[in-house]
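Bumping with the actual sequence this time:
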Amino acid sequence: GYSGLLSLQGGITALETAASMGSAGLTIDTAELALGVDLSMTAAQAFSVTGDAIVGSDDGRSLVLDSTVTSAAGNSLTLRNLQTSFGGNGAGILGGLTVDDGTFTMNGKAIGSDVTVKNGAIFDATGSISGNLAVSSSVLLASGGNSIAPGTLNVSGNLTMDAGSVYAPNVFLSPSGVPDQRQSDRVNVTG
């Protein structure tokens, strides 16, 4: 690898080795980053979206985002056909996030804008979304990848789910063991 910043300004760029990613992170404008390799971005690597950006793969690559991700209003990020684990800071995502196919897992983190989930994607998140959540022909979970305790996703906007979508919460017996008392994952919507 190198110590610089990978900056994409247009077109499609294929990333075939993780060493091609600069240690300072990624800035992507109206461009596509096509992953031919699993990629992990650490907290030390910034991820800035300055246009309508796509990060995707043709074969369901893994993307671990432990970095701070930012985008200004009007600059959207689409994650296409990836197995994404988001452990970073997404409060600065202001232009919208789209999960198109693949999976997206987030545990206790924040996204600062609208989120769209479509084309058979699985969106499994706890934490908060500061905007609307739209789910189209996809699956919504609120466990954040934790199948042993109830999770909560807070949506400060509206939640819309089309007829082809499924909400699939985990259901648990209460910790007190009292019969007929259950707990489950939940989505709190305040829009």
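The tokens above came from a reply further down the thread. The longest strand covers residues 103-111.
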